# Entry
Amino acid sequence: MTDPRQRVAEYLKWQNTVSPFLLPKELLVKRPVAPAPVAPVAPVASAEPVAISSNDGPATGDGPAAAMTAFAREIAGCRSCRLGETRTNLVFGDGDPHARIMFIGEGPGRDEDLQGVPFVGRAGQLLTKIIESGMKIPRSSVYIANIVKCRPPENRVPHKDEAAACIGHLKRQIAIVRPEAIVLLGKTALQYLLGEEMSINEARQQVFHYEGIRVFVTYHPSALLRNPDYKRPTWEDIKKVLVFLGLPVEN
Ligand code: SF4
# Structure
């Protein structure tokens, strides 16, 4: 018959509810420790820019993200103009297909042609700085594209027939994104999207719309690299975009 003291000790070991100091050393067992409840973590204030997409939800089968992906596949092999013969990569576009703002430039340069992404060279880095440091929004929350998707040789301005061949691609992207505001960067974007021949300085003073979308016009970042005097007026233009979208404005 089992010693009653041994049975009590076994019971206590099984229950493991008694102080280990009261149990004989040989009966001590390691209690499986239940994980401590995890306290909810308060959101940490971040210096990162705040995303402003109109819809941050996952892409659905028929949403803008899926439509953009399908369209990128559709035109991946485009050779509708001579620029298709000399490109390294077709530079489709970059950013959030649900974006509230769309930036449109002229065409890919050397870095963009090599990487297949718009606005990644020096001018692109300046645009990113305007968006992230100036507007305080992540570049990934806007959509960026160009009038032509293939690099014109030696970075020349796209010819009229090249822009005419490619503009339908851009218009389809605008129709997919349906941004609240479009920012045209430079004279070529103004000329080929809106058919306006005026100078940027004139255009900056005017109100334009494209398919019901408010269009702002400002200098191309490469113009700012050549002439830093354009930085102040460019920032004034960008502030108008922020006010239009109801976003905070810093001077
Ligand atoms: S520039 Fe546009 S139209 Fe011309 S080949 Fe490239 S994608 Fe096609």
Q: What stands out?
A: The CA atoms of residues 42 and 101 lie 30 Å apart. The two ends are 89 Å apart (CA to CA). The domain at 64-245 is CATH 3.40.470.10 (Uracil-DNA Glycosylase, subunit E).
